[in-house]
Write a structure and sequence with these properties.
Fumarylacetoacetate hydrolase, domain 2, 6-stranded mixed β-sheet, 31% strand, globular, binds manganese (II) ion
Amino acid sequence: MTYLFDPPPVVSVPVVGTDARFPVRRVFCVGRNYRDHAIEMGHDPDREPPFFFTKDARALVTDGGPFPLPRATGEVHHEVELVVALRAGGSDVAAADALGLVHGYAVGIDLTRRSLQADAKKAGRPWDTAKSFDHSGPISAIAPASAVGHPASGAIWLDVDGARRQTGDLAQMIWSVPELIAHLSGLFRLEAGDLVFTGTPAGVGPVMVGQTMRCGVEGVGELTVPVV
Ligand code: MN
């Protein structure tokens, strides 16, 4: 078989402790999965089942790359998130079986054009321009679960130029990682290579050119991203 032109390269993420990289298939994201963030965005965290959107895999920034602030936008907000990396998939996976699909965990930032998202919400339009724009998903190396286990608690935080902006604990997630995988697998057939951004704690805010974001998840890793 031949192609008309070179097919796009496989997007991949480094894995701690090996030269083998994690090839990315799809990137799923969860909205409002921490109580304090749901409240800061003006929603009632107790009444909502989890909801999902996607980011294009080509929007990921791997290997310590910088985040170029996009044109055609107002405020771009940081959202630090625990990212789950799947090595196997399935449909209608039970929560009790979900962690068996997980290869490991990373630290990611779900960068969001907040002003475009607010416009989209008001107009009932899709979120793609707000959430799936180029370079909108910086991600650390993946820490294998065989080394770090399956963290269900631990600090999650983000600093901008050394000032703490976001802070929370994985235990504050409204929907746990196994519950998220179970819900998602009822909506999509999950496959090896899928990533899940699991939501952000309170404290989201804008970034500007020249600043540096530094964030981490206890027991998983850290990520430093200059805004250029
Ligand atoms: Mn998010």
